[in-house]
Amino acid sequence: MPEQLDSREFVLRADPRGMFGLAEAFPKQCREALELSERLDLDGVKGDYRNIVVCGMGGSAAGGDLLGCLLSEEGAIPSFTVRDYALPKWVGPDSLVVACSYSGNTEETLSATEEAIRRGCQVVCITSGGALAERAKAARLPLLQIPGGQPPRTALGYLFVPLVQAAVGVGALPEQPWDEALSVLESCLTDWGLESSGRRNAAKRLATRLYGNVPLLYGLGSWQGVVASRWKGQLNENAKCMAFANTFPELNHNEIVGWTLAETQVGKRWTVVILEDGTESARMQARARITRELIEPKAQTYTVTARGESLVSRILSLVYMADFVSLYLAALYGVDPYEIAAIDTLKRSLAEL
Question: Model-level pTM?
Fold first, then answer.
């Protein structure tokens, strides 16, 4: 089976709209997003904010989640991602609200944006166009228009990098080592891309291990848990399979007991992938080791380690591997990674109400 993934024809046979090409272009996209970020005018935005609130859904919210990871480790203020029509009560004039909608027409984000404006919040908009861009122009809000025309889950560079630069611009984050991060992403592309043989391609090997099994993504720490959720979403949407995510040490207080009868549910078709930074404390490493020992009679277990020196590099490298693994898994299942029929059906049904 790994040999099949060395065939370009096999991998791309169910990918007529070029999802794999979009994944391969991710390092370039991040570089372009860094250049685009310079167009975001923050002169009227700088101030003493108590928090940053990112409004978005699905792929458009992922950048907010990752920004929260950076701010938690390196920032002066926290951030919170709102996936809803309404804002939390505590959001107000001392909050910097960033509305992120790749299409510009996400109804939840548009609703939250209007509420932020009514509450007197400073609002910044990141979108490819649509109603959000029109509202930003009408209200004279800072607006960064990014390239459109691709699924939001493939546009993470356009949605994440400007968020980070905005946080840097208002003094919430220090300058980020983008040169290193981009170099790490290029090395990931070399190692995990289609031209890399399955014998040495960790993404291809992991996809074959996940094939026919139920993936469980375990993050070995808080930000790793956020990345685990991103892996889950990519596997759901690209490979059309169920997947589940959880985070250490919390999973050691509940989910670990669920393994007691796990084999009665889907037999031994569980596959656990532990996502690690590589610099976790000895205590956290012990938790991972003991957990593996407990579940290995009932599940395959694998570990994926982040790359890079800086936190932004390590986050992006772990995120990037999910793109390749999910696309290789889609190829093994013979499904089109682009289509999201269930989501499209749901949106049409809601529009008819």
Answer: 0.96
Domain boundary assignment for the chain: 2-15+178-333, 19-169
* Fold that domain 19-169 belongs to in CATH: Rossmann fold (3.40.50)
Which ranges in the chain belong to alpha helices (H)? 8-12, 19-24, 26-37, 59-74, 107-118, 130-138, 156-169, 178-192, 202-210, 222-239, 255-258, 263-266, 282-295, 311-333, 341-351
Distant-in-sequence, close-in-space partners of 80: CB < 8 Å, separation ≥ 6: 51, 52, 53, 54, 68, 88
The answer to whether 64 and 163 are in contact (CB under 8 A) is yes
- Phi, psi of 302, deg, nearest 5: -140, 155
Question: Does the structure show a pLDDT above 90 at 1?
Answer: no
Active site residue 32: no
Q: Does the active-site annotation cover 347? A: yes
**2-15+178-333 is classed CATH 3.40.50.10490:** yes
Which residue out of 237, 240, 276, 298 is catalytically annotated? 237
* The pLDDT value given to residue 2: 67
Q: Is 268 marked active-site?
A: no
pLDDT digits (tens, 9 = 90+) for 283-319: 999 999 999 999 999 999 999 999 999 999 999 999 9
The DSSP bridge pattern shows strands 79-82 and 122-127 to be: unpaired
Same fold yes or no, 2-15+178-333 and 19-169: yes
Q: Six-digit token pair at 241?
A: 């399979």
If pLDDT is split at 50, 70 and 90, which confidence band does 268 have? Answer: confident
Tell me the residue type at 249: P
Secondary structure (3-state) at 76: coil
3-state DSSP assignment of residue 309: coil
Which distant-in-sequence residues (6+ apart) come within 8 Å of 250 by Cβ? 225
Using CB atoms within 10 A of its CB, is residue 283 exposed (0-12), middle (13-18) or buried (19+)? Answer: exposed
Of 45-49, 177-181, 227-231, 325-329, where does mean pLDDT reach its minimum?
Answer: 45-49
